Amino acid sequence: MVRRRDFAVDIALDVAPGDTVAVMGRSGAGKSTLLGALAGLVPLDGGEIVLDGRVLDRAPRVRTAPMHRGIVLLGQDARLFPHLSARENVAFGPRAAGVPASLARSSADEWLARVGLPGAGDRRHAQLSGGEQQRVAVARALAAEPRVVLLDEPLVALDAVTASEIRAMLRECLAGVTSVAVTHDAVDAAALADRLVIVERGRVTQEGSVREVLSAPTTEVAAKIAGLERLVGVARAGGWEGAGMRLESTDAASRALVGSDGVALAAVFRASDLRLGEGFPAIVSHLEPTPSGVRVVTDRGAAEVAPGEAAGLGAGDAVRVSVAPDRVRFVAAP
What we know:
Blueprint: E1 2-3, E2 8-9, E3 20-24, H1 31-39, E4 48-51, E5 54-58, E6 62-63, E7 71-74, H2 86-96, H3 101-114, H4 130-143, E8 148-152, H5 160-173, E9 179-182, H6 186-192, E10 195-200, E11 203-209, H7 210-215, H8 220-226, E12 228-236, E13 239-242, E14 245-247, H9 252-257, E15 264-270, E16 274-290, E17 293-298, E18 301-305, H10 307-310, E19 318-323, E20 329-332
Parallel strand pairs: 3-9, 3-10, 7-8, 8-9
Antiparallel strand pairs: 1-2, 4-5, 5-6, 10-11, 12-13, 12-15, 13-14, 15-20, 16-17, 16-19, 17-18
């Protein structure tokens, strides 16, 4: 546990050896504080950190220095040593651990090849693109043979094509390596992680397999991360009622949840599945452009439509909305 000015970051995280756990949440929720505590950069105010049965930290008396944890932190900035070549950057960790220079350099060249930079050992920081620097940073982190790798949004500063390439490289290189990955991108979570943890104001609000959390978010934050609309209501007469709407679902698990009237449930669906033109009355809040059309935000959820369908609409306009039963799911609403 780490006390912050407005709330405490108190997160119970259990990562099995060789697994990757993704941690997601709004900015300021405590994700980077979690990584800082694991890395030994942020002292604990309570609780403990245990790795492979060894207590690294236990407030207030036990505290292991960052360099003695066997944990590496890979962030948005590659932080390469500018005066060293790519090879020497990667060889730095093993050499510091006592590995002979020739063996460390040979291993560094192997790691550079594994991250997609064969023959780049002599190049320095200024001769590498942003994506190449991040590849070297990954090789440097893994060449040190850490017991745990911490990822703090390492792809956020990269263009989409480069991020996609490095994401695939990370997935391959991290196979079997115990990792905790903080990200704002659900694509990263789905590509890299076995489990997903949602953090809100320093607390875990949902955790499970990546597919489970993204398909059935239990909070508004989790729904936004999953790219889903979420409306809270109750089970009523075999369906869901809330926000001035009544919805039904063909999903078997959803149908089981609406068996008892009055149970608090959330209806979740994709904005692309909310239809305009018929159904329940709604009021337009505002319009947002999207890569493929327009997002019409209403008090009954948001609908992603073609530009022509949104022509003439504006804030305060009355519309009608509907969601087909095969496009909506119901989940428990805490």
